Predict the structure.
Amino acid sequence: MSARLVLARGKEAPQFRRHPWVFANAVDALVGRARPGDTVLVETHDGRPLGRAAWSPASQIRARMWTFDADERIDDAFFRRRIDAAVACRVAHPSLAGQDGMRLVHGEADQLPGVIVDRYRDTLVVALNSAGADKWRAAIVGALLRATGAAHVHERSDSDGRRLEGLPPRAGTLHGDPPRITELTEHGVRLRVDLAEGHKTGFYLDQRDNRRLTRDLAAGRRVLNCFCYTGGFSLQALAGGARAVLSVDSSAPALAAAQASLMLNPGLDAGRASWREADVFELLRELKSAGEKFDLLILDPPKFAPSSAHAERASRAYRDINRLGFQLLAPGGLLMTYSCSGGVSAERFRNLVAAAACDADVEAQVLQHLQAGPDHPVALAAPEGAYLKGLLVRRP
């Protein structure tokens, strides 16, 4: 019999709204014994069942809801149903047709908390970031193989989220013989992806649609791509006919990977691309002092605020980097600016960019709100899943 997780009086509202997380301060008692990852029955203080969840005693998120149907069994068949539905959703979406790389399972949005699965050609990369996901590793991998027919499965359960769950990092082969390095073709551009050491599961698949927008906007423009990582935005800008593209990152290996990807695309003019290993904040100040101006500027920094506890410090960084961006933007120029920080809301980010424009003493227009693609859905009851937010801004 499952242990019962009893919520404190007055703390049930999130679960009534179908929010998948039960925080430590909402727990009144655990009745019975449960090990990390075990399934528990979640109940109100007066015994009304709310659903079944994975128990995680080391985390501030004490339980993650698998289902809001208290009668639904959590077993191998459960994971087959959930994964089949997630894969079918992507297969049915017209904008994802023919893509070499996409997210197949996106955690809470696919009702599989802590489960991330990305497909790179015939290889799946799996990140199991919660105690429940970790416990059901074999069932999840079996369901993925059944649903996709993938030749290889590689695990990249090495995020900070594992540490918060009290779990050690894990990486390695789960099925087949996954390549360390693979290639994607994204909107006609070939990209080199390091599945073993690359960020996240190897690449930032969430920016696919925004890279395509960069291509559409780049013709004839002088482009500055900051925090360029392995150059996805840069190569799309070149493919779109950019006059020149300067790409900046503090990582020499990332820049080398970007240049290797450029060499995979002989149709792109490598002479229009330049690469700088530098601290972005420092380089932008140098470019400002030199009087440089750009027609299209991309700011896609790393996660400044992994949680709301870091929001104030992150806000200063976002405001500073966007101020410098506006100062380098030519009249009529476009700024594509992003935040992937879950601790900074979309509203707060927009206000920070507005403050940065004011600091730079420039007028600015928001042309478009930017987000991840349809393979990164967001659960309506859990808006925290909308971690990637961006703005396309024009300086009149």
